[in-house]
Amino acid sequence: MRRAWGVVLFLYGCGSADTIFPATPDAPSSPSAGWTVLAQTDWTLQPHTETYLCVRVTVDHDVYVGGFDPIAPLGTHHSVLGISRGTTPDGVSTCSGLFIEPSIMFGSGVGTQPLELPAGVGTKIGKGQQVVLNLHLYNTGDAPLSGTSGVRVKEMDAAAVVNEADAMLVGPVGFTVATGLSTVNGRCTLLRNQTIFAVAPHMHKLGRHMSAQIGATMLMDRDYTFDEQTFSTIDVQASALEKIQTVCTYENEGAPVGFGESTDDEMCFLIVYRYPAGGQFSVCSE
């Protein structure tokens, strides 16, 4: 076990991060055998407070991941797992909620289920690379709230990997949600041919519907609730220079709300899982 997130915000009672490599017995809530904790941390938040934690872990061998499972008790708003630039030491620290690392592997919101990648598809974490788990934690209650948040992974044999996968966030930034019923549009131009095998929505409390398409092919078209940010598995062949178009619908009974990290702000991101990996920034917004 290795004790293993940077910048100063108020952190209330942050515990140590636990990383398990090689595999140890699964936690009771693990979805099935073969899953191990990649990164996690204990935390405590005072009433009506929120914070962002980064859990950084350097792996000691090549890891090929065939599945991701969020550890997300009450208070976990979202998590994003990626490869860091490796400029911050391993450990747990407060940080920004905007993920600026060059590569994303997995993202989850409230209610996101475990994601198993298609046969022959895996995400590689190279020996010596540092992963960073970006956690947004929010206690909306009147009493202190504690939990352990993180991510489990399902390792696979390197020989079984035909295609390496990663993820990206697609959607607009810097927008404002007007009072009443309104929509916000986003666009992303793909830089290479790729297969999209899963998509998931991420909006905040005012979100009501998200649709996304590439050309005439619909990637997602469904109502949205904050507590059910589940992904959909698809199989869409996309070509370089094609554009992903996203449309988020909001219902806002109060004053205009801007884009931002907090649950009280808004976002409009489609989480796209695709292969081959690379060739695009982790956030694609035009």
Can you walk through the features of this model?
With 286 residues, the chain is mainly β. It folds into 2 domains: 2-164, Jelly Rolls (Sandwich), CATH 2.60.120; 166-284, Jelly Rolls (Sandwich), CATH 2.60.120.230. 0% of the residues lie in helices and 54% in strands. The strands form 5 sheets. Strands 1, 2, 3, 5, 9, 10, 12 and 13 form an 8-stranded mixed beta sheet that branches. Strands 7-4-11-6-8 form a 5-stranded antiparallel beta sheet, with no helix packed on it. A 5-stranded mixed beta sheet has the order 20-17-23-14-24, with no helix packed on it. A hairpin with a 2-residue loop joins strand 18 and strand 19. Residues 1-30 have low confidence and may be disordered.
Q: How are the SSEs placed, and which strands pair?
A:
Blueprint: E1 2-3, E2 17-19, E3 35-45, E4 49-58, E5 63-71, E6 76-83, E7 91-94, E8 103-108, E9 115-116, E10 121-125, E11 130-139, E12 145-155, E13 163-164, E14 166-170, E15 176-177, E16 180-189, E17 194-203, E18 207-214, E19 217-223, E20 232-238, E21 243-252, E22 257-258, E23 268-275, E24 283-284
Parallel strand pairs: 10-13, 14-24
Antiparallel strand pairs: 1-2, 2-3, 3-12, 4-7, 4-11, 5-9, 5-10, 5-12, 6-8, 6-11, 14-23, 15-22, 16-21, 17-20, 17-23, 18-19, 18-21
